[in-house]
Amino acid sequence: MRAVAFDVFGGELDVRELPDPAPSPTGVVIKVEATGLCRSDWHGWRGHDPDITVLPHVPGHELGGQVVATGSLVRGWGEGARVTVPFICACGSCAACAAGEQQVCERQTQPGFTHWGSFAEFVAIDHADVNLIAVPEDMEYTTAAALGCRFATSFRAVTQVGDVRPGEWVAVHGCGGVGLSAIMIATAAGARVVAVDVSTDALHLAERAGATHFVNASAGDAAAQVRELTRGGAHLSLDALGDPDTCAASVESLRRRGRHVQVGLLPGGATPVPMGRVIAHELRLLGSHGMAAHSYPRMMELIRAGVLHPDQLVTRTIGLPDVGKALASIGSVPGVTMIVP
């Protein structure tokens, strides 16, 4: 198969011929029709993810495609099925899975991290009966791919972990793929959204996604601007980028008893958090890590009903030869980039 791989962390990403994957007894092989370019892939390429231990490595973790091979123990899926998968693939049998919390599975696998991923013509996914999600015939694969990570991650972060309510103020720090998804979802839930970014182009996309108030973080204290716009602070604030500065700004954006959700992955090292404010204002600090396959139906129904439009967040489509340059410059092009192998 053709795939994009690297031999050294932070080194060259090139297209090469690699062996086709084979399904495990409980798994499938998927022909990748579209796969997203995500900041998490950048973290993996740079060496920030401890799950990547063997090189060369193929990145990529959000995908849409067709099943082309199945393991002997797979019961619910056959060749030709149109599918996507959560980027956190659960085992289905640990204590977390038994409790319905597959997004924190104790034996989770992640394509593009624990094994070769979807920047390729084919990708293997284990425990297919636990992890595969059917894609409607009328949904484009580029839309389906976004549901594997960024859109579904944002959906759970906003609606379940963040517990957004109509009329609340929501601040979203970082208007990349995760942030734009969070804005669209919070707006659809009836919240008033403040978009925060350093890029005017990203803020324009945030307006299209539903934000009504905007803060250019390069113009000064972003948290203070959010507190002024919302007359006291956001009820819910998300760090959708993953940076010590945006994490701190998100916490400082909150009103008393507000809720901060950390969605963006943070690089290694210290992340200063204003804990004095957390204590004095009784703030809640929450982490959100993807979404289990069994939680997808509610989101899929909102997409089918035309309430949510993840397809509108895709701003460009590239091929495998363009992946190296695009990943190295992640964040320079607003919106969601899709790869069609």
UniProtKB/TrEMBL annotation:
User: Which Pfam families does the record cross-reference, listed alphabetically?
Assistant: ADH_N (PF08240), ADH_zinc_N (PF00107)
- Keywords from the named record: Metal-binding, Oxidoreductase, Zinc
Q: Which cofactor does it need?
A: Zn(2+)
Segments forming a coiled coil: none
Segments forming domain Enoyl reductase (ER)? 10-340
Give the family, as the similarity comment puts it.
Answer: Belongs to the zinc-containing alcohol dehydrogenase family.
Report the protein name in the record.
Zinc-dependent alcohol dehydrogenase family protein
